[in-house]
């Protein structure tokens, strides 16, 4: 019997993929797209440069003197988790909160509908994992979303028949919980992002648990995404990469899909590329998947060695929708819908992210007012925390319950919140800036 190395050499790239999950990441360095060449290369200096900094300033981000000043303040946080401990200037924000960012995963939720309808258990994972990959096109935006106020909510309706609600359930550490549902699936997530500031970059670890239940057969899917790195945060051109494995497991059958996100190299080599396989419970490859997370994903049947089956061809399963040109915040059309009242319920909670005065001011282009409102909210939240602690009170989420379950993630343990199923008591809409101020802020 030949050694694994020789076997892989004789069988080619796809065979290397099947030599075991321990060799998966190294094998994926030679991706399908890499074999056929790179098109439309985007020249990227991973370390940044003066030209990049000037381009960022022209895009409306901070000027070089602002970067220098901020760098002096941030040096002391190198190596620390800066998720909520640092006050950031509003100039680097986008007019969206983290709760709304969570809802962006629902743009292509029709793929979950297809997964629920699908009879083939392996093609079902192709649809579901393509849904999980699709959001990375939106995640490449380099603007920072606002941290939600404790008790803040976001609701969305009027999109593919789903209802979506998310709530900020903890402030220290920052934790959010979300739930979405339509006739085909339910989606539940508890998220506690963990960060590590490295000077001119920040690593973001997706400490969380994502579960999707397909209603027709009761199939439960578990998703573990790769970490993300924001590069050239202060100096150079800011850009986002998410190198590593994404794993989606069918907890009902043991089947799984493992997709490898290629790291970006010089001149954009490997950027956006995603490759992997759908495996059965015995870890035998059934379908190969390949594509770019900013363009499209395709799949093809494969043999036991991971090679494409003769007589088959790649079939596209997802393609990114058309996006606005020269949008200030690089928003998709769906991101604009998330901010609009077109996707809001007829009556809206006073705690909804759309109504935050700082977010609203930034959306209207009033930067000074956005900064002032952000500072005011943060100070009111700190004051509310002092008052609550002085009275011995505790915060209790309204729409999610803390369970006794603790999930183990690659980046730490996570307490799980469960959606209560109780519909929020709505309030009538009034002037956006005023309505959010009726919310009792806690932290």
Explain how this protein is built:
- The chain is globular, with a radius of gyration of 22 Å.
- By secondary structure, it is an alpha+beta fold.
- The strands form four sheets. The protein has a twelve-stranded antiparallel β-sheet. A four-stranded antiparallel β-sheet has the order 7-8-11-12, with no helix packed on it. A two-stranded parallel sheet has the order 1-2.
- It folds into two domains: 4-30, no CATH class; 50-343, Porin, CATH 2.40.160.
- Helix 8 (110-117) runs antiparallel to helix 9 (121-134) and helix 12 (357-363) packs antiparallel against helix 13.
- It contains 14 helices and 20 strands.
- Mean pLDDT is 81; it is low at 1-53, 425-435 and 437-443.
- The termini are far apart.
Spatial strand order of the main sheet: 3-4-5-6-9-10-13-14-15-16-17-18
Under the CATH scheme, the architecture of the largest domain is: Beta Barrel
Level of helix content? Answer: 25-40%
DSSP summary, beta strand count? 20
The first-level CATH class of the largest domain is given as Mainly Beta
Are there runs of 5+ residues with pLDDT below 50, and where? 1-53, 425-435, 437-443
The major pleated sheet works out as: 12 strands, antiparallel
Write the layout of secondary structure elements.
Blueprint (H helix, E strand, L loop, with lengths): L3 H8 L1 H5 L6 H4 L4 H5 L13 H9 L5 H11 L18 E5 H6 L6 H8 L3 H14 L1 H4 L4 E3 L6 E7 L2 E9 L4 E7 L3 E7 L2 E4 L4 E4 L2 E7 L4 E6 L3 E4 L7 E3 L2 E7 L5 E6 L11 E7 L5 E8 L3 E6 L13 E5 L13 H7 L17 H7 L3 H24 L9 E10 L2 E8 L12 H5 L7
Organism: Nepenthes gracilis
Family: Belongs to the OSBP family.
GO cellular component, one term: membrane
């Amino acid at each position: 019997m030949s050694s694994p190395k020789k076997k892989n050499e004789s069988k080619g790239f796809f065979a290397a993929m099947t030599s075991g999950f321990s060799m998966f990441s190294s094998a994926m360095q030679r991706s399908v797209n890499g074999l056929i060449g790179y098109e439309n290369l985007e020249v990227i200096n991973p370390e940044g440069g003066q030209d990049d900094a000037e381009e960022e300033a022209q895009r409306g981000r901070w000027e070089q003197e602002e970067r220098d000043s901020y760098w002096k303040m941030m040096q002391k946080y190198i190596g620390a988790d800066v998720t909520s401990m640092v006050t950031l200037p509003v100039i680097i924000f986008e007019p969206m909160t983290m709760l709304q960012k969570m809802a962006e995963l629902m743009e292509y939720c029709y793929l979950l509908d297809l997964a629920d309808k699908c009879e083939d258990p392996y093609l079902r994972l192709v649809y579901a994992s393509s849904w999980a990959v699709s959001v990375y096109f939106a995640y490449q935006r380099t603007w920072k979303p606002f941290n939600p106020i404790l008790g803040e909510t976001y609701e969305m309706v009027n999109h593919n028949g789903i209802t979506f609600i998310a709530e900020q359930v903890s402030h220290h550490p920052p934790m959010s919980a979300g739930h979405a549902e339509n006739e085909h699936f339910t989606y539940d997530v508890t998220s506690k992002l963990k960060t590590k500031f490295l000077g001119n970059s920040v690593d973001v670890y997706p400490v969380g648990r994502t579960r999707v239940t397909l209603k027709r057969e009761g199939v439960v899917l578990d998703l573990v995404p790769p970490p993300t790195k924001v590069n050239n945060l202060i100096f150079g051109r800011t850009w986002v990469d998410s190198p590593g494995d994404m794993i989606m497991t069918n907890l009902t059958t043991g089947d799984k899909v493992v997709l490898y996100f290629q790291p970006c190299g010089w001149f954009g080599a490997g950027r956006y590329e995603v490759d992997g396989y759908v495996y059965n419970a015995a870890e035998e490859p059934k379908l190969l998947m390949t594509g770019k997370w900013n363009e499209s994903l395709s799949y093809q049947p494969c043999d036991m060695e991971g090679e494409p089956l003769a007589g088959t061809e790649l079939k596209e399963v997802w393609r990114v929708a058309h996006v606005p040109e020269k949008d200030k915040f690089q928003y998709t059309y769906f991101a604009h819908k998330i901010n609009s009242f077109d996707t809001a319920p007829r009556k809206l909670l006073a705690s909804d992210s759309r109504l935050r005065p700082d977010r609203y001011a930034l959306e209207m282009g009033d930067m000074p007012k956005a900064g002032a409102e952000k500072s005011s909210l943060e100070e009111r939240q700190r004051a509310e925390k002092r008052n609550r602690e002085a009275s011995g009170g505790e915060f209790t989420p309204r729409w999610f319950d803390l369970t006794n379950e603790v999930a183990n993630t690659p980046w730490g343990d996570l307490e799980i919140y469960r959606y209560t199923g109780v519909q929020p008591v709505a309030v009538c809409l009034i002037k956006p800036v005023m309505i959010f101020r009726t919310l009792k802020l806690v932290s």
